[in-house]
Specification:
Length: about 130
């Protein structure tokens, strides 16, 4: 399973994002989510992310599925797509903002990860490069 995580400016807008109890914690949510999916808990200095209404992060459900299947049956490749806070998760690749190599236009509109071709998630899972 490839988990791509990053922080966006949209998360800082009140009323739009539920990815953290408050705007300051929202910058830590993607990093903590990677840690939860990978190891089952965030790093000691990170709280479990909750929404403004107190609902825990969906990363807890993803980790529960990994536990039920056996963590080795669903390996995780974490991709840093612009994390604002450091993570204790084993991040395989850092996608730099503004790079033409990793963001390419898709036929029919939108953007996709890769060189304009399909990204090879299998290589990421096996420790290779994305492009």
């Amino acid at each position: 399973m490839v988990v791509v995580a990053g922080t966006t400016a949209t998360a800082a807008i009140d009323g739009i994002s539920a990815a953290g109890a408050d705007p300051d914690l929202r910058t830590q949510t993607p990093s903590a989510d990677l840690e939860i999916v990978e190891t089952g808990r965030p790093a000691p200095d990170s709280p479990v992310p909750v929404s403004p209404t107190g609902c825990p992060t969906p990363a807890v459900v993803t980790r529960a599925v990994r536990e039920l299947l056996g963590p080795d049956s669903l390996p995780v490749a974490a991709v840093d797509a612009g994390l604002d806070a450091p993570t204790a998760a084993a991040v395989r690749e850092r996608i730099a903002a503004g790079t033409d190599r990793l963001l390419a236009e898709r036929p029919g509109g939108g953007e996709s990860v890769g060189d304009g071709e399909n990204a090879d998630a299998g290589r990421l899972l096996n420790g290779g490069d994305a492009a």
